[in-house]
Amino acid sequence: MRAKSSAINDSTIAVGPSAGIDPATRTTGTDSGTATGRESSRGGLVLAWLGVLAFSLTFPSTAWGLESFGPWSLVALRTLLAAAIAGSALLLGRVAMPDRRHRAGLVVVAAGVVIGFPLLTTLALRTSTTSHAAVVVGLLPLTTAVFSSLRTGARPPRAFWAAALAGAAVVIVFTVQQSGGELSGGDLYLFGALLVCAAGYTEGGRLARVMPGWQVVGWALVLCLPLAVVGAAVALPAEPVRLTAHGVIGLVWVAVVSTFLGLYVWYRGMAKIGVPRASQLQLGQPLLTLLWSFLLLGETVPAAAPVAAVAVLVCIAATQRAGRDRRPR
Q: pTM for the full model?
């Protein structure tokens, strides 16, 4: 990034031989350096948890949005609104265009997180309940950790992988138990969403170590703006629109919070604590979504949910403890 963007840099910009390493987390061999590293790690955990909280409301908000809009219209409008906010922020901040070497990564973020995941999950929610979709997407943490290991060379210790696999196993068992051993029609959409979102998270987390997290989200959204305009122009006349309070609130949430603010804090958190550790916090996301589905949509919470919640929280604690032992480079 050029000097123009440094004035509003809210994350780490890599310089020289230490590129890609957050100075706040780089150890110095002194008590001060260690304390600073711990403080940065705690801050990263808080930011990542805020991202998880924002994302946990995405499926219920999408279900609300579908009360007013068709699936293609909803995705186009959420992208259009989020891109307008991001583009305005980039213009007001006089942010320079991203370096050429970062543009391919931004395309992956745009394709996976801005377009692919929202579209595939919205299509799935036409036939799946939000609670079922949330639990299937509970495999996202493990998928993201695998993508990160392959893409960035991160090598978490074996204890991390054991805890991550245990958490994924809890999610799988819970899913199979709730579905009676059969996959629903929307599960293919959900499994596709897992893959594209994991790729987008991994690439976004990597970019957030060398450019401000909000700019990663912002440029990815701006890249999708032409597609969003065309999509809205085509989908709105083709799909019925029935404006309701729920529909408008759902659209605003998925656009402003899930697609922009949530990704902003999420990528900042990943930049501070690493993609593998941050990804495992999402093991708790399906259970939060179950709670929101019960409170906002009136869906029935399975009796096994509290047991799964406790097991998942234990796995999250184990991955965070193990992840501190060996930071991804």
A: 0.74
